[in-house]
TrEMBL record:
<keyword id="KW-0677">Repeat</keyword>
<feature type="repeat" description="WD">
    <location>
        <begin position="253"/>
        <end position="294"/>
    </location>
</feature>
<dbReference type="InterPro" id="IPR000306">
    <property type="entry name" value="Znf_FYVE"/>
</dbReference>
<keyword id="KW-0862">Zinc</keyword>
<dbReference type="InterPro" id="IPR036322">
    <property type="entry name" value="WD40_repeat_dom_sf"/>
</dbReference>
<feature type="repeat" description="WD">
    <location>
        <begin position="210"/>
        <end position="243"/>
    </location>
</feature>
<dbReference type="GO" id="GO:0005769">
    <property type="term" value="C:early endosome"/>
</dbReference>
<protein>
    <recommendedName>
        <fullName>FYVE-type domain-containing protein</fullName>
    </recommendedName>
</protein>
<dbReference type="InterPro" id="IPR013083">
    <property type="entry name" value="Znf_RING/FYVE/PHD"/>
</dbReference>
<dbReference type="InterPro" id="IPR011011">
    <property type="entry name" value="Znf_FYVE_PHD"/>
</dbReference>
<dbReference type="GO" id="GO:0008270">
    <property type="term" value="F:zinc ion binding"/>
</dbReference>
<keyword id="KW-0479">Metal-binding</keyword>
<keyword id="KW-0863">Zinc-finger</keyword>
<keyword id="KW-0853">WD repeat</keyword>
<dbReference type="InterPro" id="IPR017455">
    <property type="entry name" value="Znf_FYVE-rel"/>
</dbReference>
<dbReference type="Pfam" id="PF00400">
    <property type="entry name" value="WD40"/>
</dbReference>
<dbReference type="InterPro" id="IPR015943">
    <property type="entry name" value="WD40/YVTN_repeat-like_dom_sf"/>
</dbReference>
Length: 411
C-alpha cells in the first residue's frame, strides 16, 4: 500500500489562527486532588478555589507576580462547589456529603470565619444560587441548590431551614440556573433533561421539560437580558434556548470533540464562551445570523437518486438494486444514500464548526466563514469562570492547574 500523508486533526487550522487570542497571565498550582471550582475575587488580585482534597483556598497575587494561598482551610468532606457574594464577603462551599458551609472572609483575605452549615442534601452539591425574595413584605434570603441526591431544594440562608418540599428528578441533578425576575429555576440532570420550575408561594411547579441533549448536562447559563438559556453537556453539544424571546427557537452549536464542561456568557457582546475535555476554548459570536438545524426527512428511497433504503424490500426487489443505508444532509435534512451524501462540510450558520455530512447541492452553496474563534487551552478544561471588569477568564484543568487568561482582545 502506497504511503499517504493524511491531514492531521488540526486541518481546521485557520480557526486557531486568529490574531485575537487569550493571553496566559498566571498559573496556580498546588492542589493535591481535582480542583472543582475557582473564581477571581472581584476588585482584588485574588482567587478562591475548592478542591476534592477537601481544601478551600484563597490565593493572593504577591509582589513576585505569582499567586500564593493566604488561606487554606480543610473541610470534613471534598469541597465541590463555591458561591461568593463580594458585597458581604460571604462564601458558601458545597461539599461532597451534601452540606453547604457558610464563611465570612476578612477584608484583607487572610482569614475566614465559619458562620454555619446548611444540611441541604444527601449527596454531592452540583449547583448553588443565593437570592433575596420578598415574602409578605419581608425580605428573605434563600439558597437554592441541586445535588446528586436527585433533588432541587431551597433553604432559608439565615435559619438554614428548608422551604417547601424538594423537586425530585429521576436522575442526578447536575446543574442549576435561576431567573430572578420571573422566579424560574432551571435544573439540568444526568439524563440530559432540563426541568423548568416556577417558585410560587404555594411551592414548586413544573412548567416544562426541555429535551434536546442525549447525555448529562454539565452546565446551564441564563442570560436575563435576552431571556435565553445556554446548556452544554457530555453529548458535546451546546444548545441556545430562546425561552422568553417569543421565537421558541433552539439553536445548536457543534464545535467540541469531547464533553463540554463549562460555559460563560458576555451579554454586552452577545458572546458565548465554551470549554471542554478536548482542551479547546471556543468563543461563539451570537450576533451572527444563525439558523435552526432542519428536521430529518423520512423516506424509503434516496431523495436524490431514488435508491431504496435497506428496509424497502419492495423497492429493492422491483429495482433490482441493493438497499442502501440511510443518511441525512445536515444542511437540508433530506434522506440520502451514502453515495449522494459523501461531502463533509462545516455549516457555521447552523452551528456546525466541525465538518458534517452534506449533499452535493448544499456543499456548493454553504458559506464556510467561521462564526467562532477556537483556542487551544493546552489542558482539558473542567470549569471556566469570567471576570467581566478585568476581561479575564479563569480555567481549571483536569491537571489540577488553575489558569488566568487575559481575553480583552476577544470581548
Ligand atoms: Zn442517492
Ligand atoms: Zn443538502
Amino acid at each position: 500500500m502506497a504511503a499517504q500523508i493524511k491531514p492531521g486533526p488540526s486541518s481546521n487550522h485557520d480557526k486557531f489562527n486568529s490574531n485575537r487570542k487569550p493571553v496566559l497571565l498566571a498559573k496556580l498550582e498546588g492542589c493535591s486532588d481535582h480542583v472543582n471550582k475557582a473564581i477571581l475575587i472581584p476588585e482584588t488580585d485574588g482567587v478562591i478555589s475548592v478542591s476534592s482534597d477537601r481544601s478551600v483556598r484563597v490565593w493572593l497575587k504577591r509582589d513576585s507576580g505569582q499567586y500564593w494561598p493566604s488561606i487554606c482551610k480543610y473541610l470534613p468532606s471534598p469541597a465541590v462547589d463555591l458561591l461568593y457574594r463580594p458585597t458581604t464577603r460571604q462564601l458558601f462551599v458545597g461539599q461532597e456529603n451534601g452540606t453547604i458551609s457558610e464563611f465570612i472572609l476578612e477584608e484583607d483575605f487572610n482569614c475566614m470565619e465559619s458562620v454555619g452549615d446548611i444540611l441541604a442534601h444527601y449527596g454531592r452539591i452540583t449547583g448553588m444560587i443565593w437570592t433575596e425574595i420578598s415574602i409578605d413584605g419581608v425580605l428573605e434570603q434563600w439558597i437554592l441548590s441541586t445535588s446528586r441526591d436527585k433533588r432541587f431544594q431551597y433553604h432559608n440562608a439565615k435559619t438554614t431551614n428548608p422551604i417547601g418540599p424538594p423537586f425530585v428528578c429521576t436522575s442526578w441533578c447536575t446543574s442549576l440556573e435561576y431567573d430572578l425576575e420571573s422566579a424560574h429555576v432551571f435544573v439540568g440532570d444526568y439524563a440530559g433533561n432540563i426541568s423548568m420550575l416556577n417558585i410560587k408561594a404555594e411551592g414548586l411547579q413544573l412548567v416544562t421539560t426541555l429535551t434536546g441533549h442525549t447525555a448529562c448536562i454539565d452546565k446551564l447559563v441564563w442570560d436575563s437580558s435576552s431571556r435565553r438559556l445556554f446548556s452544554a453537556g457530555h453529548d458535546r453539544l451546546i444548545i441556545v434556548w430562546d425561552i422568553g424571546g417569543g421565537q421558541g427557537t433552539a439553536y445548536e452549536l457543534h464545535g467540541h470533540t469531547n464533553r463540554v464542561t463549562s460555559l460563560a456568557f458576555v451579554s454586552a457582546k452577545n458572546l458565548l464562551i465554551s470549554a471542554g475535555e478536548d482542551s479547546i476554548v471556543i468563543f461563539w459570536d451570537l450576533n451572527a445570523d444563525r439558523k435552526e438545524t432542519p428536521p430529518w426527512a423520512e423516506s424509503d428511497n434516496c431523495e436524490t437518486c431514488s435508491r431504496p433504503f435497506l428496509w424497502n424490500i419492495t423497492g429493492i426487489f422491483e429495482r433490482k438494486q441493493f438497499g442502501s443505508r440511510q443518511h441525512h444532509c445536515r444542511s437540508c435534512g433530506r434522506a440520502l444514500c451514502d453515495k449522494c451524501s459523501q461531502d463533509k462540510s462545516t455549516i457555521p450558520s447552523m452551528g456546525f464548526e466541525l465538518p458534517v455530512r452534506v449533499c452535493k447541492f448544499c456543499s456548493n452553496n454553504i458559506d464556510h466563514t467561521p462564526m467562532a474563534i477556537f483556542h487551544d487551552a493546552k489542558h482539558s478544561v473542567t470549569s471556566i469562570t469570567m471576570d467581566l471588569l478585568r476581561k479575564c477568564v479563569l480555567t481549571i484543568g483536569q491537571d489540577r492547574v488553575i489558569k488566568i487568561w487575559d481575553v480583552s482582545t476577544l470581548i
